[in-house]
Amino acid sequence: MNLQLPANIRKHRRDMSLSQEQLAERLGVSFQTVSKWERGECMPDITLLPRIAGFFHITVDALLGVNMLKEEEEVEVIIAKCSVADCHYRFEEITPLVEEGLARYPNNFKLLTWQAYALQHTAPKRAVEICDYVLENCTDSTLRHWTERNRCYALFNAGDKEKAIAAAEQLSGYYDTREDVLRNFLCGDKLLTHVQDDIILKLAYEFWFSIRKIGDSYTPDEKIALYQKSNAVYDAIYETDDLAFKLTRKMRNYQGMAEVSLLEGRTDDGLAYLRQAADCAVRHDALPQVVESEALLFRAHPYDRQYEGNFAACCSLLRDLETEDEFYASVRETSAFRDILVMLQG
């Protein structure tokens, strides 16, 4: 059974502002027949397909959703590339990818949602407009939830803080989330995978990310203590060092500790933290593509680094050390700093 046909008949009928009775009359079939087509309970006779397509002024392929299937496949390829760029904070790569897709499929809600996400910082007012359009026209609940979130950030970045807060207060709370509700219904391997991937991994990330957002409220020593707590969280949850995401998060934490120390003039502490960051980067890059982790809370499945793309932690950290003068200019001529560069250069 063609899964696109019922939805396409319903869509084109509504686009022409026709009732099921009116469409049935125009096609010379019963109202009940059209109703069954749209519910997917039966399909039109093959000899009727050209007539139905002609009535809607589309091709039979379009009626059957052949073009839609091609669109879906191409859009998924684009979104996979966007996801890799997003994972590594290369947000500037997302917009051209999405715009290329929208040139072919201008009303694709998945692409429009990604476009709003990419524009929320660089063109927030445009992002709000896109979000409003998606929310007015898209019925996909997953896309709508993400769009509502994107709209909050876009409003805030556009300078409308009060509207952003009001919109954020309307979002679902933690205990209304998919993650929390599914935890109560799944069992066996599905429950194990869900808890490990969708809850524990995300909560560790949320702690890691949140301390960066609140850091300005703390003294330098307290900031360092927060980074240390984040590393302790990762060490407690993932007691082995065979998971790439753990090593990159710890690397960034040590880098944060180093930067705080160097800004405070604590050169020895800063260099010691940088060496620990470099050690995490080296171990990260040495991991194989697929890892059977020994961590107790990550045994549901092998970890595949496919979402990292070509990310190399050593190159990323090395680029920071060579270009960010605010933190590292004062120590670049020291032998300890040069030793760290050698570590990262392999």
How would you sum up this structure, described in words?
By secondary structure, the protein is an all-alpha fold. The protein folds into 3 domains: 60 residues, Orthogonal Bundle (434 Repressor (Amino-terminal Domain)), CATH 1.10.260.40; 85 residues; 133 residues. It is 70% helix and 1% strand. It is built from 19 helices and 2 strands. The chain has a two-stranded antiparallel ribbon. Helix 13 runs antiparallel to helix 14. The model has no long low-confidence stretch (mean pLDDT 91).
Oligomer description? single chain
**Element pattern in H and E:** HHHHHHHHHHHHHHHHEEHHH
The spatial strand order of the largest sheet comes to 1-2
Helix content, binned percent: over 70%
Give the number of helices.
Answer: 19
Structural class: mainly alpha
Strand content: under 5%
Count of domains = 3
- Global mean pLDDT: 91
Unreliable residue stretches: none
The biggest beta sheet reads:
2 strands, antiparallel
Radius of gyration: 26 Å
The beta-strand count equals 2
Envelope shape: elongated
Span from first to last CA?
57 Å
